[in-house]
Amino acid sequence: MIDQYVSPNELRRLISTLLVTVGAITIFGLFALIVVPGLRNANKPPASPPVAAPQGETGWLDPTEYPPEHGYELPPVDPKTVMTANPELLKRGKALFEQNCVSCHGPAGQGDGPGAAGINPRPRDFTKADGWKNGPQLLAIYKTLDEGIKGSSMTSYNYVRARDRMALAHYVQSLGSFPHGQDDPAALDALAKQFAKGGEKVPNRIPVHLAMAKLETEFKAVAPLALPPRGESDANAAVLAQAVVNPTRAAQTLAAAPSWRENAAALAAVVSNETPTNGFAISVATLSPQDWQALYDGLVKATQQ
Ligand code: HEC
Predict the structure, then answer these.
(1) Which residue's CA lies nearest to atom 41 of ligand 1?
(2) Percent of the chain with pLDDT strictly greater than 70
(3) What is the pLDDT of residue 1?
(4) Distance between CA atoms of residues 53 and 67, nearest Å
(5) 239/289 Cα distance (integer angstroms)
(6) 171 CA closest ligand 1 atom index
(7) CA angle, corner 99, sides to 94 and 103, nearest 5?
(8) Is the pLDDT confidence value at 277 over 80?
(9) Residues 101 and 155 sit within 8 Å (Cβ to Cβ)
(10) Best substitution site from 58, 92, 105, 138 to test ligand 1's pocket, by max atoms within 8 Å of Cβ?
């Protein structure tokens, strides 16, 4: 019917023009919808820089480099300043609590810190009188901080100096308004005397990179013992062959305890422990003093390289 108006040739031309136009519009549309937004997003600056790990917080795998520090002895503490609560001590306790305890015990000590959610048993609620394992008395809390509570995520804080542990104990008590009970007067007296005597030691501290280097050398691979070839007539060689069951393990045992080099007796002390897992035969227990001397000479030679 349409051929009444246009010739077949003209119709073919019109249809192909139509197809080309529709195709061009489709391609243009896809380009505008897919490619252009993609380019715009790709050129956007990143929303915010990646979050940096907080540095210098106490904890496991803290990468902060502390300066090396010699250990020292703390001066005696006047028991009056630590055995009963006072505002200064409570202030110190609060600061320490906020740093070390809030994550589990919560800001008000109700056992509802952000870290408490998946913990079993739950962190103690310091505002309640019940459920305490060591007890809410001053010395009981001090003991908890010293030893931790076995089988729970309450770990020992015995690396915190004694005066600060007392500050924490007083602060924990201040969070609950129930009666906390009395400690054994003799135990209180003993602790007071300990404070007055002083002598608490702060250990040496070395930077993390040094500690890691030390660890590395301790675990450095040790070359296996160079044992003389079997069948050698030398007496030392015969004892060596009998005594060493695992040359690599034996070399590690010796490297970990250099005191064996002093003499045959020192060697016997090092080697007789934990045979045969230390690389030496159980039968070393039956060696005569002469055999030990022969083993000693043989090992000195075998570890010379
Ligand atoms: C990792 C979580 C965690 C942190 C951090 C933590 N605690 Fe605990 N704490 C616990 C849990 C869990 C218990 C309950 C243990 C149980 O019931 O066996 C507990 C119990 C206690 C108790 C009660 C002991 C008793 O007699 O029952 C005291 C006191 C205490 N914590 C003090 C502290 C102080 C002070 C700090 C900070 C220096 C601290 N805790 C940090 C998890 C934690």
Answers:
(1) 101
(2) 91
(3) 72
(4) 20
(5) 12
(6) 35
(7) 105
(8) yes
(9) no
(10) 105
CA distance 124 to 101: 11
The rounded percent of the chain whose pLDDT value lies above 90 is: 49
Residue 40 has a pLDDT of 82
Instruction: State pLDDT tens for residues 175-206.
Output: 999 999 999 999 999 999 999 998 888 888 88
Question: Which of 127, 149, 170 should be mutated for ligand 1, with most atoms under 8 A from CB?
Answer: 149
Burial class (CB in 10 A: 0-12, 13-18, 19+), 241: middle
What is the average pLDDT across 286-301? 90
Paired tokens of 239: 């004892």
- pLDDT at 37 > cutoff 90: no
- What is the distance between the terminal CA atoms of the chain, rounded to a whole angstrom? 106
> What residues does ligand 1 touch, defined as CB less than 6 Å away?
100-101, 103-105, 115, 119, 121, 123-124, 132-135, 140-141, 144-145, 149, 152-154, 157, 168, 172
Residue among 174, 162, 172 nearest 134 (CA): 172
